[in-house]
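Re: weekly structure request thread

Next one in the queue (150 aa):
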Amino acid sequence: MNLSKFTDYALRVCLYLGAHQDRVVPISEMSRAHGLSQSNLMKVVNQLVDGGFLQSTRGRSGGVALARPAAEIRIGEVARFMEGDHALVDCSSCILRGSCGLVRGLKEAKTAFYQSLDRLSLADAVLAHPRTLSILMGATHAQDNQVPVK
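Done, posted below.
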């Protein structure tokens, strides 16, 4: 199974916010930390807010934060929401449409994929590797110490 870049970015946003649960994080900060386009992240963040995963705060000290504790957000839930309920393959133009023996197996594979991701919470993912949290926290501090380029 291949996740879209949109879902990839959504998971990166959630991981970053999972490491920074104590504060509201500006989208520009996440953009710099991950080296991603701020406009793309804004689209992803808006969708995550609409899905109830994030809450946003407007204004000068605005940004986003997780809408629920990281331990309550399942990775599969985020991926499933971002990907939508599309079939793994497009059967609309296939000569076997309606008579294919693969359809059931593909549905089962997709279900198993999401069930596997559902076992992992956002908090689990942040703590799964010994360096993940320190890298995500360090991305903030590295930005704070950068000298502005003129």
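Confidence is low (pLDDT under 50) at residues 142-150. The helical segments are 5-19, 27-34, 38-50, 75-83, 103-118, 122-128, 132-144.
Next request, please.
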